[in-house]
Specification:
heterodimer, A: mainly alpha, ABC transporter involved in vitamin B12 uptake, BtuC, 76% helix, globular, B: mainly alpha, 13 helices
Amino acid sequence: MLIEALSLQLGYNATLVTIGAGLLGAAAGAVGTFLFLGKRALVSDAVSHATLPGIALAFLAMVALGGDGRALPGLLLGAAVSAGAGLLCISWLTARTRLAEDAAIGAVLSVFFGAGVVLLTVIQTLGAGRQAGLETFLLGATAGMLRADALVIAVGGGLILVSALVLRRPMLMVAFDPGYATAQGMNVRQIELAMMALAMAITVVGLKIVGLILIVALLIIPPAAARFWTDRAGGVIALAGLIGAVSGYGGAAISATAPGLPTGPVIVLLAAGLFALSFLVAPRRGVLAVGLRRRKVRP
Amino acid sequence: MMGAEFVSLSLTPMVIGTLAAMACALPGNFLLLRRQALIGDAISHVVLPGIVVAFLLTGVVAAGPMMLGAGAAALIAVLLIEVIRRLGGIEPGAAMGVVFTTIFAGGVLLLELSDTSNVHLDVQHALYGNLESLIWLDATGWASLVDATALQGLPPELPRMAAVLAGMAALTALLWRPLKLSTFDEGFAQTLGLPVRGIGLLLVVMAAIAAVAAFDAVGSIIVIAMFICPPAAARLMTNRLERQVWWSLGFSALCAVLGYVLAGYGPIWLGGAHAVSAAGMIATVSGVLLGLTAVFGPYRTKV
């Protein structure tokens, strides 16, 4: 069964979801590298939690307009808008007040999520006949996914991956040294904005598969694991993309083999396994290698 | 609104919510100033796996083992973050992100794979809590507050949360000077011979106790919001730590009461029939409060 899932023989939809998860993982690993190298990994946590009120509002708006509240493109648009609002709040709080970025992240994360939960209860009380199933966005669910939805995810993941590769040089420079980038005549604000927009796009596209609580793992764990193997920035991007792709593809395939296996957590645990492996056995920076070196130095 | 029904249905959840909010805001003040505000976020994510493991080991849904499990999970998470940060040379934010997402994913997977359908244990419950269900059925009116037999029927979360808040306040008062010194000037505190790392660890343990106790009663949204929003708002109101702590306690109580009232009665005032999530509304109110202080607070700008 697992072999069949990994070799894409479980039907058209499962295949599309597996490929989509692989592309999403690759894109998330590459985009996450810029955030990781710029030490802003947890901003994405606030962004992903901030999607919830947008999803709920989009559902309400589509129902009010007489449409199907569950149409994925509409929900993802709502998610993107409210995630953008969350990002604006973070940058406004850190620029205008004396609060540090971590406080702004935590505040936006909890407040937006709380507002989203309030809206979810509003939707629940609108009538049991329209059970929205919006809760699946919390942890992701691939079972019963529509073909069009899977296509949106696969195409979205591919587009983000391509944009990240195109923009990698300016984004790396800004992540490493914003001051130097400014001196080189780059528009640092615009590039930072592009970086955040890509992270936001990952979050939004990944909502359906991984869910908004765990999507941040795909942005953080692959680059953190890749960093153990190489010191070259280009190498970290490539390796993080590979680790993300393997986790996404493998996780989606494994979870397709049994009905009770939730996709998001399996993908995250696979990535965590690769991280643990890198942490232990990577040459030079891995814990074992460092330990051995210390023993050799000691007479 | 203030009759017998209020006492039995709304008073206890409101009081429990207030106590929980204050218990989280108190250590939140120090975490905020030490730039560790997101520790509360990390802890509340790992509480669910701890509870699931405790349930799988004991087979019962009881407060004692679950809180032990949650506490253990919080400690393991904090240790893992330190190990990855120090041995792996990874910046704290990313180390935290790696650890709490992994443990949370493990918890969700365990929950899905094990048979917990007959007990009230799911992800939604963990996130939103069950504040509205903490009612006091034995109360018949305000007179019940002095009636010993009615008081016996109080939800157990109330005395538990009160004890945690009292313990938290006592510890803060007792260790005020070392806490303050090591928060503002770690180097100076070290030269005075204070156990700086011990104090840092104690603060994290205090936060974990507050988070675990509050989580059981009110869910993790309130925990994360109350760790950060009231202290952050208080920080924009004053320059003195003493006053900041008092402001944050006042703010957290205000958020809890106002949030609960708005969630319970707001929709009815607007013509609706159903209450909305109190936990979500309390977090929302705290955000509005933070927004107001960020615009009008006397000490809002960078010095």
